[in-house]
Known about the structure:
With 143 residues, the chain is an alpha/beta fold. The chain has helices at residues 52-67, 85-100, 112-120, 123-126, 133-141, and strands at residues 4-8, 11-18, 23-26, 42-46, 72-76, 104-108, 129-130. Strands 3-2-1-4-5-6-7 form a 7-stranded mixed β-sheet. Helix 2 (85-100) links the parallel strand 5 and strand 6. Helix 1 packs parallel to helix 2.
Amino acid sequence: MVELTLDIGDVKGSIRPDFSRGSLKRGGEKKMAPAAGSQASVEILQAGDLDARDMVRVKNRISKLIKKDHTRVILILREARHVDFTGLGILVERVRKVRALNGDLKLVGLNPYVLKLLKCTQVGRLIETYGSTREALRSFKGA
């Protein structure tokens, strides 16, 4: 079992993946211990656009997670409609940082426009993208 910490805006808590029913159950503030042999928790962050303003907030949140030794991050970008090069630069810098600490950052829920921009800028070759949070979680399970 993988421990997940949910941090979406002002909503915080822990969730446990229930792969048997294909859903995520939301828990309270209590964190569940990872199962024996599993790696560190996977942090799930909701982000807005891939622009400088929103990515600076994401960078700061990831920095706080790194200080707590949480280096496995899923960034949900379903709401992303705008991309700028500064935001992409911040994203790439954070990916390199968590990977240097033996972690990873994966993207979920990109719309076709944003996905195409990531591919055009070659950022899509650097960062794994997934259609669902469940797929991204499973990719960490195999890591």
